């Protein structure tokens, strides 16, 4: 059918510049948070900084070889190198400590790991730029400013020097300074460009909270200003109970005229954010959202048939994709959805999907459960990827996968063998999605 008509956008709470959050000090949105003092830009680093023109040049192939060589020495002692890296930051730049959560057990190695990943990709400019631009934009929600990059670079170099042993010399240091200079420039440029048109984060008030089977909650929130996203993407979420701890959750519905957003959250044992969202959040509470990200989006101009696999709460972005296809018009395509869980009660979104199935002849929903003894006709019994393989071949389909990492990896292998090309299998497994 034709695309749904656009409805009115939520009214802005003020007429500030678009880069500013439209809730401000003292309003009910901000009072929901312990704001503390603003994060300040760091003073000049006491560690020596290189202003050498040599360090400002792009890394050479020789530099990249030296980087790989020093990484080989650091990787076996990465935990100690990471601990030393943060110790240097917090010792020399205590004002930067407020960028990080109080408990560092999950967060601790994330920045260090990202820097190492970037250094490894320095020889692939397009891949590096895409990765770092996303990282630079994402770091805005933590309060990272341009002035923070220089002292972080100095602490990185000092930590690498300590743990690279005999592999470290002046030439290796220059190579790392060149790579870090490239990394920080890409991240800073992406962050500053985005800051001209979008806030670092959105306040979002919980308007409904519904418990489902399997320790799942469906939350609907109202953001403080319009929140741009595509079906299939996800947002990082922060709660007032665990400041500066962000976890990614997929948006469970296509963009709506009323601007409301829906998330499906499963409580994870010892998961700080998920247990708070499932067991503690209630209407009136205020969350923070980072910008929407992720590449699991449908190309509506292409018109290929779609194969969608959703395991557990991984059904959330799949449901959003189905909604978006319905709104844009199918253009002759068919959509097959395989929705899996351990048992029938854990298919908490099945009834909504079946309603869509009854309404749209181009959509076919296949419930899949692992538990034997399920009544015939209620669901197919088996592991989700293996069940999908029984319906092969899938030549010509675009595939979208979401769910537990092991399921997604297994499904990728099944779909490749079932005739789907690698570049037509879409998932966000590479995205940083820790449990909790």
Structure description:
By secondary structure, the protein is of the alpha/beta class. It has helices spanning 28-31, 61-74, 78-92, 110-120, 125-138, 149-163, 170-195, 272-279, 315-328, 350-359, 384-390, 405-417; strands at 202-212, 216-223, 234-238, 246-250, 261-266, 286-289, 306-311, 335-341, 363-369, 380-381, 398-402, 425-426. Strands 4-3-6-1-2-5 form a six-stranded antiparallel β-sheet. The radius of gyration is 24 Å and the shape is globular.
Briefly, what is this?
The protein is of the alpha/beta class and 436 residues long.
Strand content: 15-25%
Give, in spatial order, the strands making up the sheet with the most strands: 4-3-6-1-2-5
What is the helical fraction, as a range of percent? 25-40%
Could you say what the CATH topology of the largest domain is called? Globin-like
The H-level CATH homologous superfamily of the largest domain, spelled out, is Globins
List the main descriptive attributes of the protein structure presented here.
six-stranded antiparallel beta sheet, single chain, Globin-like, 16% strand, disordered N terminus, Elongation Factor Tu (Ef-tu), domain 3, alpha/beta, 436 residues, 3 domains, Rossmann fold, six-stranded parallel beta sheet
């Amino acid at each position: 059918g034709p695309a749904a008509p656009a409805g009115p956008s939520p009214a802005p709470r003020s007429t500030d510049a678009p880069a500013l959050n439209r809730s401000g000090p003292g309003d009910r949105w901000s009072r929901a948070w312990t704001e503390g003092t603003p994060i300040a830009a760091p003073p000049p680093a006491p560690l020596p900084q290189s202003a050498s023109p040599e360090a400002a040049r792009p890394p050479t192939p020789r530099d990249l070889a030296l980087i790989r060589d020093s990484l080989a020495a650091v990787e076996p002692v990465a935990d100690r190198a990471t601990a030393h890296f943060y110790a240097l930051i917090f010792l020399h730049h205590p004002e930067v400590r407020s960028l990080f959560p109080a408990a560092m057990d999950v967060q601790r190695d994330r920045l260090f790991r990202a820097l190492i990943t970037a250094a490894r990709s320095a020889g692939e400019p397009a891949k590096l730029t895409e990765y770092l631009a996303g990282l630079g934009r994402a770091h805005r929600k933590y309060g990272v400013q341009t002035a923070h990059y220089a002292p972080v670079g100095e602490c990185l170099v000092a930590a690498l020097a300590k743990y690279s042993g005999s592999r470290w010399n002046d030439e290796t240091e220059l190579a790392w300074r060149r790579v870090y200079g490239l990394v920080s420039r890409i991240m800073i440029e992406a962050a500053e460009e985005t800051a001209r048109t979008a806030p670092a984060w959105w306040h979002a008030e919980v308007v409904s909270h519904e418990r489902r089977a399997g320790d799942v909650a469906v939350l609907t929130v109202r953001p403080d200003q319009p929140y741009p996203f595509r079906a299939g993407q996800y947002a990082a979420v922060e709660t007032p109970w665990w400041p500066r701890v962000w976890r990614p959750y997929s948006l469970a519905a296509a963009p709506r005229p009323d601007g409301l957003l829906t998330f499906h959250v499963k409580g994870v044992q010892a998961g700080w954010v998920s247990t708070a969202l499932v067991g503690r959040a209630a209407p009136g509470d205020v969350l923070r959202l980072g910008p929407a990200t992720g590449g699991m989006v449908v190309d509506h101009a292409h018109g290929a048939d779609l194969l969608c696999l959703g395991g557990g709460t991984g059904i959330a972005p799949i449901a959003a994709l189905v909604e978006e296809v319905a709104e844009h018009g199918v253009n002759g395509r068919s959509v097959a959805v395989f929705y899996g869980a351990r048992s029938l009660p854990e298919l908490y979104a099945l009834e909504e999907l079946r309603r869509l199935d009854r309404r749209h002849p181009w959509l076919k929903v296949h419930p899949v459960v692992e538990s034997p003894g399920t009544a015939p006709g209620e669901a197919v019994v088996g592991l989700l990827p293996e069940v999908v393989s029984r319906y092969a071949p899938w030549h010509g389909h675009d595939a979208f996968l979401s769910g537990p990492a092991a399921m997604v990896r297994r499904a990728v292998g099944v779909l490749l063998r079932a005739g789907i090309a690698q570049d037509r299998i879409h998932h966000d497994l590479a995205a940083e999605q820790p449990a909790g």
